[in-house]
Amino acid sequence: MRTISMPRLEIDLDKIYHNAHTLVDRLACRGISVTGVMKASLGSPEIARVLLSAGVNMIGDSRIENIETMRRAGVAAPMILIRSPMLSQVDRIVTHADLSLNTELDVISKLSSAAKAAGRKHGVVLMVELGDLREGIMPADLEDTVRQVLRLPNIALRGIGANLACHSGVSPDTRNMSELSALVDSIEAVFGLTLDIVSGGNSANLDWALGGADAGRINNLRLGESVLLGCEPLHRQPIDGLYTDAITLIAEVIESKVKPSRPWGEIAQTAFGEKPLVTDRGNISQAILAIGYQDVDPSGLQGPPGIEIIGASSDHLITDTGHCHLSVGAEIQFQLNYSALVRTMTSPFVTKVLKAPQSER
């Protein structure tokens, strides 16, 4: 009898295609193209090809290792490294990535040297700080940075970008997007050039981009979470018309018993340094599943109705199954948020099962 590996992610490529194609079409009406972000799918060549067939114009990833994986698999598309490059990886970056997002002149200078040695030209997009306080050149320093970048051989200044709603939760809005557009206009006027990429941000920009506001100079968004999970990151609300179940996690029950809900003995810290909140709900039907913090962010999981996650350790997910007694070996399906998805995708202990598109069945 064939045994399916557990735990596993089941990935519906048709639903991912639908989500990507829908967003590409909606944003095209606003003059905005889509960079398909692959970091949450570990650079899956299959998913990359689905995004390209859905109309994304470029593939982005924060890890050069994932870009190399896609290149080895023959994914033919412009590739952009969307995390500031490490000095230790500049040779690999100019070899496998067409562009990279940058904030440091020292890094761009090393990219220049590496590109010259490789006989290549490398594109850069300068990231500007607009308040979220992650990566970005301060706006007052942008003009001088551009001046120095333009002097570097084998470097092509392709555009300017920004990132919001990641570190501090600052929402993209008319004010900060207008500021980015104004910076682009100013740089073009001062240096007499045209920037072809103005990357306004990520999936958190969708409320702004599709809300009817003037897009200004913004002509690109970097989308990952909205495509894979069908929701927007500001409030984690479903996006109308998109699938929220394109990717699901399935885990197996390894213990099912009736146990007290209140632990006994002297209470200290848990395995992860937390002080547990002790409550007494009497005896409960407790099921343990074979997955834990090493593989997933348990707080990012949503189980079926009637199953409540009450705790986890490295390798165990502990649930209260209410009135339902689960059998050992039962498979339980969970929906994931972005944090849980990233963790499961990068775990070697979670099998990834791709459901082929209809056209290939």
TrEMBL record:
Listed transmembrane segments: none
Matches recorded under SUPFAM superfamilies: PLP-binding barrel (SSF51419)
GO terms assigned for molecular function: alanine racemase activity; pyridoxal phosphate binding
UniProt cofactor(s): pyridoxal 5'-phosphate
InterPro entries given in the database record: Ala_racemase, Ala_racemase_N, PLP-binding_barrel
Record bears the keyword Isomerase: yes
Name the UniProt record assigns to this protein: Hypothetical amino acid racemase
Organism: Photobacterium profundum (strain SS9)
